[in-house]
Design brief:
With 281 residues, the protein is α/β, with parallel strands linked by helices. The protein folds into two domains: 85 residues, Leucine Dehydrogenase, chain A, domain 1 (Rossmann fold, 3-Layer(aba) Sandwich); 123 residues, Rossmann fold, CATH 3.40.50.720. The protein contains ten helices and eleven strands. The strands form three sheets. The protein has a six-stranded parallel sheet with strand order 1-11-8-7-5-6. α1 runs parallel beside α10, α6 packs across α7 and α6 crosses α10. The protein is globular and about 50 Å long.
Length: 281
């Protein structure tokens, strides 16, 4: 079984991006800039944002985190986003989710200029992705996609099952696999026989947030299995895949942690650089 080392693949990607930033600096005499807006003091968000900032600096991006208390008015956030939209030194804007209840998430997402939307959450980018046009692609599914391609460069005709239909993961993951000519099934909590669906799959991407849902006898021999889940349980951090069981049948599997997580952050840096390049065209 191949243990897909997300940490290592992400480090390789960051190294490539670092080189690219050097080249862009020579060519344009400026570097891509990423601004992250963080509202409140939720611990997981704080950790994510710290990692994002560290990685952005490591590859040579201009990076800034703007912090607000969770009592901040929605208007203040929307005005800040408008200001960043008009700031030529900023290539990418990310508002860390989740947001406090009094702030309308969709309004926030739609205020970010689609050309600076490094999360790929703006409806314009969602539409472009599903139409097969150039767009920002959400970082987590993009990271999953790059890892799958490392294991199997030719995905044409493969059967893929995506478990979970969220806008963040399941739906964009489906679009990426479709673009690669996979036959894709999207499954979710109302799917009648999830095990039977998974057993058909050459590729499984599990992104539902249910601890160790995908069992060993749900997986076809030599399938590629990507585990997007991060679930806190009594037994510590586990994914959506029963790792020990599935590792006995799969061809390749991502661990949790150390699989999808590091790739998500590396893909955010990639998206920032891609937004910069498109803005220079
Ligand atoms: N919170 C958890 N994951 C993400 C993400 O990919 N983007 C944003 N903006 N917030 C998140």
């Amino acid at each position: 079984m191949i243990l897909i080392d997300g940490k290592k693949i992400a480090a390789e990607l960051r190294e490539e991006l670092k080189q690219e930033v050097v080249e862009l600096k020579t060519k344009y005499n400026k570097v891509p800039g990423l601004t992250v807006i963080l509202i409140g003091d939720m611990a997981p968000s704080q950790i994510y944002v710290r990692n994002k900032e560290k990685s952005a600096n490591e590859v040579g991006l201009k990076s800034e985190v703007i912090r607000y208390p969770d009592t901040v008015e929605e208007k203040t956030i929307l005005e800040k986003i408008e200001e960043l939209n008009n700031d030529e030194t900023i290539s990418g804007i990310l508002v860390q989710l989740p947001l406090p209840k009094h702030i309308d998430k969709q309004k926030v997402i739609e205020t970010i200029a689609p050309s600076k939307d490094v999360d790929g959450f703006h409806p314009m980018n969602v539409g472009n992705l599903s139409s097969g046009y150039e767009s920002s692609v959400p970082c987590t599914p993009l990271g999953c996609y790059l890892m799958i391609k490392k294991i199997e460069p030719n995905l044409s005709g493969k059967k893929a099952v995506v478990v979970g239909r969220s806008n963040l993961n399941g739906k964009p993951m489906t679009q990426l696999l479709l673009k690669e000519n996979c036959t894709v099934t999207i499954t979710h909590s109302r799917t009648k026989d999830l095990k039977a669906e998974c057993l058909e799959a050459d590729i499984i991407v599990a992104a539902v947030g249910i601890p160790e849902l995908v069992k060993g006898d749900w997986v076809k021999k030599d399938a590629i299995v990507i585990d997007v889940g991060i679930n806190k349980t009594e037994n510590g951090l586990v994914g959506d895949v029963a790792f020990d069981e599935v590792s006995k049948v799969a061809k390749a599997l991502t661990p949790v942690p150390g699989g999808v997580g590091p790739m998500t952050i590396a893909c955010l840096l990639k998206n920032t650089i891609d937004c910069f390049k498109r803005s220079q065209k």
